Every structure is written in C-alpha cells, then in structure tokens.
Give the backbone structure.
Amino acid sequence: MAKQDDQFKKVISHAKEYGYIFQSSEIYDGLSAVYDYAQNGVELKKNIRDYWWKAMVQMNENIVGIDAAILMHPTTWKASGHVDAFNDPLIDNKDSKKRYRADVLVEEYCAKIEAKIEKEVTKAAKRFGEAFNEKEFLATNGRVVGYQEKIDSILSRLARSLENEDLDDVKALIEELEIADPISGSKNWTDVKQFNLMFGTKLGASADTAMDLYLRPETAQGIFVNFLNVQKTGRMKIPFGIAQTGKAFRNEIVARQFIFRQREFEQMEMQFFVKPGTQKEWYEQWKESRLKWHLSLGMGAENYRFHDHEKLAHYADAAADIEFKFPFGFKELEGIHSRTDFDLSQHEKYSGKKLQYFDHESKESYVPYVVETSIGLDRMFLAVFSNSLVDETLEDGSERTVLRLPAVLAPTKAAVLPLVKKDGLPEIAREIIDDLKFDFNVIYDEKDAVGRRYRRQDAAGTPFCITVDHQTLEDQTVTIRHRDTMEQQRVKIEDVRGIINKEVDMRAWLMKM
Ligand code: ATP
C-alpha cells in the first residue's frame, strides 16, 4: 500500500512539475477536486480525445457526433431520473465534522479484508513456489474462504439496504462493523442521508422569474433529446450511434484521488441505437470493440479487466466496466451499458413528443434500445499518464525518469537541439522546426548540456530528440534519438519528418484495433 501511495504521489508531482496538471486556482489555495490542464496536459488530453473521436466517429460510417449544450431544460433531469435518484448516501462524523459516503466507508472496510487475502496469497506463493495454484488456494484455504464470505455478506447487505432505501440499516452496518472515522478514529456518526450530486444554477435575471437549472451530470442526455433530430437530418438507419465529448459536473462527496474523481470532468460517450431484441449482441460487440481500442495503445493487456455488474441500475439489462490498474489498484475507467428503451421512453413521456424510429423494411415504428459506451477523458488521461511514468536504472548504473507516453498521444513529438549555441547550429535547428511545425508539435531547446536536455525531454514524454551538430554543417545530417530505447541514428534532415511520422501517425495505431 505504501509503495502504491508513493507511486501515486510521484504521478501527481510529476504532472505538476512537467506542466501537465495544476490545481485549480492554486494561488487561492485551490478548489477541492477541480483541476486545470496545463500546457502539456491540454495537448495530451486533446490527443486522447482525437484518438477516441477517430475510432468512434470517423471510422464508423454509422456513427456521427454532436456537441450539445451543458445547460439543458430542467425537465430533462426529471425524465432521466437524476432529480430523484442521482444520490449518494452521506454520513457525517459528529466529532471530526467530516463528511463521508456511507457506501465508501463500508467498501473501504472490505478492501482492508481483501488486502488480508492478498497478503495470504503472497505468503503462500512464496512458500509453494512454482507449484502454487492461486485459484485452488483461494477456493480451499480456510482463512481466505472465511475472509471472502465476510466480504460477500457485507457487500450484499449494503447493496440490499441501498436498493430498498433502508438508510437506517446502512448506519447500523457501519456501527456493527465498528467503522471509525479514518481521520479522527471516532465512531460517533450521524444518520445516513441522501445527497443529490447535481450542481444547481439559475437562468434569468430576476429572483422571481429565474428558472432553476442544473449543470449536466452526464453528456448522454444531450444525445437522447436530439435522437430524432439527428436521425432525420442525417437520414440515419438503425443501428446507428451518436457520439459526444464534453464537460459534466458532479458534486462528489469523496473526491480525493486527483483527477480520477473530480467535480468538473469530461466524458466521451456514444449511444448506439438498436432494434429491440438485438441489444445483447451489440452490447457484447461494443465490449469487445472498446477493449480493442484500449489495447491498441499498448499499455499492457494485464492492466485491464472487465467487471460485469451483478446489481443493475433499474434501466439497464446488462452493464460492465472496463477497469484499469491505476496506482491505487483496479478501478473503473469506462462503462458499457445496455440501457434498454428507458431514456427515450422517459423523454417521450415527459415531453409528450414521439421519439420513435420508423423501420421502412418492416413498416413498423418503435422506440429503439440503446447500448452506451461511456469513458471519462480525465480518467483515461490518468491511466495513460500513470502507466507511462517509470524510473529506470540504466546499464551504467545511472537513473532516469521517463514518461513513456504512447507516441501517438505525446504532447510534443520532437525537440530540436543545437549541440552548441554558436557556429550556425541554432539557425539550422530553427529551419528544421520551421519545416516540422506544419505536421507536429515540436520545440527548440538550447539550454544545458545535451545529456541533460535528453533527460528533460524523457521526463516530459517527448518521443524524439533531433540534435544538430558540426557534422550537420558538412553533410546535412542530424542525430535522431528515440526516447524509449535511447538509440541514436544519423539521418538526413530530409528524412526526419518521415521517421517521426511513422511512429506518431494515428493511422498506424488505429490499425492495431
Ligand atoms: P464511479 O462509480 O467511479 O463514480 P460512475 O459509475 O458513476 O463512476 P458513470 O456515471 O458510468 O460513472 O460515468 C461514466 C464514466 O465517467 C466513468 O466510467 C468515469 O470514467 C467517468 N467519471 C464519472 N464520474 C467521474 C468523476 N467524478 N471524475 C472523473 N471522471 C468521472
């Protein structure tokens, strides 16, 4: 756990030091769980968004994009169920005055038991060596089975109480488990209350006529309410999808995992409209296709896993998360949900307008079913960034920190470095930049010895360094150094663009899907 914490702290400080992420309004001591993307962060974020957009919209003939407004008619959120049910169960500690999510307190309690299981596994693996069979051990070791039964019984009681809105039982569970405030150690708790996560705001100038609005808590509803507009004007035939990226806002109670859980964040969502009865196949297909998108970035298949939901939201008939191994363990990165006709039917009911599709072949009208893929752009950013940050010990015993971002996503593709600040080398470096800048983000760096400049670019995640030296004056060649292997090649200036392009071109990466 301590090692995980250290790695996570390193990720956060590196993100600041190298101009990726700053705390929002830092000079005023920040705003909790709100972050700003800095000069490199904004580029990485844009590249992730583009990579998603190309894979979803550009490469699928039957998927189109929209950009709906953040502010929507307030009835939208009544219809979607967010006004009545987008709640987290909240509990306060009377001594520390700290507020927690009651379900998270219970889940963290279970995570501690899970850590005990992991400890037993590690111990046994050491003891049995090669002959160790983890599956069998988990199923037969008395102590481990006992731990697992305890976890299962606690979590199923929690799920049942939340589903039945039995908040007294959630409190009783916390008391029975003797869960203490993680900060003060106090067990003096208030009752559990529901807390709505939507941010409210007002539209209009005068206090009496102003209309209560919400900042959207998800982008999906902007797609649902535009379903028929897009279908008609785009002459879309089912099955088809509508994609959107944009900001969403949630007044999260527990928000302390850096950009993993923010109050203002960005989603990349796609709603795929299908004929009722075919949703199961599409759900399976989108699960597979989204995992392939992740794997195409080469961040290690072992770092992803599916978590199929057993307890489903009332509108869903199947749901799964793609979980990623963040520095603090496997957590949800993306959700794939089979949402039935719930959303469109609700909007029909509340708006009084038909939201149906007329099938010219079967000559029938129906409300389509929806399979949704929903990923947090900021969570994807954290996945990419934390997975890429490594400390390496080199053959000569020296250390380097390198941000091995997938080259296609790197904010700056190359740094151009004159070996010395004289003899016409800076001028040639500038000429190279003037040519490359039409294709890539490139930067110029002449400060410090070239070895230090290489290290700086390694840590910033730049995949290539191009060095101009005295030989360049004679034969128009430069060295190009690869970030990950540190290999250097002597190449003609005119070949540099092609070499970079080969590694950063989205086409080549997307073809791996
Ligand atoms: P969680 O269980 O972690 O709160 P969720 O199940 O509420 O997430 P969804 O409503 O399915 O999440 O939202 C889809 C995606 O949006 C999530 O998979 C996640 O990547 C992202 N997301 C949700 N809430 C946040 C947040 N507060 N900050 C950053 N990203 C978020």
Remarks:
- The pocket of adenosine-5'-triphosphate is lined by residues 218, 250, 252, 261-262, 265, 267, 332-335, 374-376, 378-379 (CB under 6 Å).
- The longest helix spans residues 102-128.
